[in-house]
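Morning - zinc ion inputs below, output right after.
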Amino acid sequence: MCHCQANGSIEARRWDPERVDGGGWVGIVRTVLGKLPKRFATGEPREQKEREVKRMKSVAVVGAMLLMVCPLVTADVTVGYLGHSCFTVQAEGGLLILIDPYADYLPYPGLPTTADVVLITHGHIDHCAHCYGQKDRVEGDPTVVWPFGTDGRVREGSWKIIEGLSVRFVEATHVTASGGGQGSVCLFSFVQDGIRFAHLGDLGRTLSEAQIAALGDVQVLLIPVGGAYTIDAAEAIAVVKQLPSVRVVIPMHYYVEGYCPWPDIAPVDGFLDLAIAEGWTVRESEVAELSLSAESLPDQAEVWTMTFAEK
Ligand SMILES: [Zn+2]
Ligand SMILES: [Zn+2]
């Protein structure tokens, strides 16, 4: 069963695209009419995999986590997790950037929320509330960024979205090695307060050399790990290795009982086990918000899990 039935429509507006990499494209964001998705039956809950490896557990206090990393820093950028592939990124006093707000078919409790800018990696129900007539899932009259052109391809390049935010758009396939997923996704890469973030949407394969170059020196990586419709845990490990500048890896798009409707997506544990096998530090936090500064990032890649926001 595919979790992604239709590329939907968005009412994207007010984004007056301006290239910042010397390219020539100028236009307006397209509104695409789409079909409403079918409802999906939820399968039997997957048994929680027995954990074979004890992991470091850092609980509840963001400050404590930062102190473990570096005791003398000021937190500058807040990363919020709203479940599945939905995150907020906000520098102190800066724009509230929301990525991949899901429709209410996914019962994660993080939405509605406010935003200044909404970045949408592709038009599937678990990434684009706007594509399913649910723009009220995002409040605050945000600028909504739909990265596909009228030809259905990602408008690759670096774009000034609004003052204070330029974003690189990188096209990637959604189709996995086993044929899961469909179409294309846009990978986003942007800098806030000196930290380059990348959100890999529903990436279906490991990265090409061109994609690696286009993403740039990513330090905080939001990456799907659950397989079925995206790269799986082993491929996600390979992607992290493709980006040697990465310091913090935050997994997303994995099965969470009661919230993720698709049990063929694996839970996060398999990815965490592989990360530990690589010798990487894994920090399982029970926070929905992390504060980061460029100086506070660990020297080597670490995996930090987050708990989605409850309201
Ligand atoms: Zn998708
Ligand atoms: Zn998805």
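Note: The pocket of zinc ion (ligand 2) is lined by residues 3-4, 124, 126-127, 202, 229, 253 (CB under 6 Å).

O.
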